Amino acid sequence: MTTTATTITTTMTTNTESARIAALAVAMASIALTMACTASAVEPVDFEAAEARVYSQGGEDGVIAKLFELIEPTAKYAVEFGAADGLKGSNVRRLYEQGWAGLQIEGDPSQFAQLVENMKPFPQVKNMQAWIWPGNIEHLFDITGVPKDLDLLVIDIDSNDYWVWKVIHEYRPKVVQIEYNAAFAPPQRAVVRYHPMNYPDSTDFYGASIQSLYELGKRKGYELVYCEKNAVNLFFVAEEYFERFGITDNSPMVLYRPPEFGYEKGGRAPNGRGWPRANTRGPLKYGEGVIPKAFIER
Length: 298
Known about the structure:
By secondary structure, this protein is of the alpha/beta class. It contains nine helices and eleven strands.
């Protein structure tokens, strides 16, 4: 009887110790997991605080600088169209001053003449006079030697921006800056109906809504990271870089900003600001041709 009791006591002690060791192991694993999660958590980037203007229209210079703090540029190559005079409102001149190469495209002859003059300090930058449309953009990139892995693409043509970005397949910039039409709050999908001769006419007939551009970006493998304060430009990064920015919700409903420009009332946006509605002026005209204004849901 004594031997049996001793055996039972020894077995119970061994089981108790095993349970304690197992519980301790679980606790340590939990602590290790918590520490790992804490260490890997990324603080959200404060792009609003980063906004700064050197040459850009708004705070784009600062936003671009912040983006490339977290994304290492490889080619150090930036493309902008329309580039205007390459000085006032330029989104890339600050990069060129830092030694980046690039391509500037502008269609307007007088603006292009000023662009060439203003780009003289940067022999590593190519300038091209051309009107952009979906059928020629990748050809222009090809003949000017734009690298397939360029770092920054700025799309600013105030008309067919959506349609041009849509057809860029052979080139994959790490960052895309593109104007959006803040007149249309999410979840509205709105894109100007395509016509090769579309042009801005100081109404809200231009570009595409944040919702439409967000969904296009998703299909192309890009994630929206910021909508600037003055509600003009959106910034996208290639999806493989997105986690670096600590953004938990990048939906248009969260990032959208209504226009901080234009009229105080009468605009299509929720705050009534922005450009006058497209129908307050007649159709677009070119030569003898007429282009009816319309938005489509894309």
